[in-house]
Amino acid sequence: MINSETNSEDFHSSPLPSKLLLEAKNISHSFDYPLFNKINLSLYEQESIAIIGVSGTGKSTLLNILSSLLKPNLGELFYNNTNIYELKDKKLLNIRRKDFGIIFQAHYLFRGFNAQENLEIASLLSGHALDKNLLEDLDITHVMKQGVGELSGGQQQRLSIARIISKKPSIIFADEPTGNLDKETAKEVMNTVFSYIKKNNAGLILVTHEEDLAYECDKVFKLINNELKELK
Hints:
Helix content: 25-40%
Distance between the termini: 32 Å
Shape: globular
Number of helices: 7
CATH topology: Rossmann fold
Number of domains: 1
Strand content: 25-35%
Number of strands: 10
CATH superfamily: P-loop containing nucleotide triphosphate hydrolases
Largest sheet: 6 strands, mixed
């Protein structure tokens, strides 16, 4: 069973360290219409940030920009004081592979392999050993020998989250990470994520429609009228 004894408030009780992980400066982007203008955002070690907003405001696009997947029309993005969109492709890919962990709405699991093999591939690529305690926290130990197609949507979601955490990223970017989970399981899974960032001096940027989940984060922003408004 997922450990439900940990109170998520425990993850937000200590003062935030001062080391800056990620800084967005004057980020603007548009497609056929403007999405957002002059977005500024800073993420520190052990800090969690949630971004909410109605559909179509550009939340996922902003997350893609912050996670190095999409170069903005205007603005700069600094990771460890380096403007990552000025890096050569190989260096940017290295940051994305080693330092960033991206949880997509789609799971992108290897369907020809079982759950165990999916995690072993991630472990091999990252050079980090698989943490069995993580599997217990996410309640997926019992499905390790099952094929991906045999898993429920919720189990696939938790496997995807385990795969990301197991690579020990400095920043986790999560796009609706609990969409396939019931409310109680979603809370317990997010407690695992919050615990990881506190224990590993990492950071979290979360996009969600669920305001209850958003307000579990240290800061909450809302994309509205092409701007990022701080709510918490």
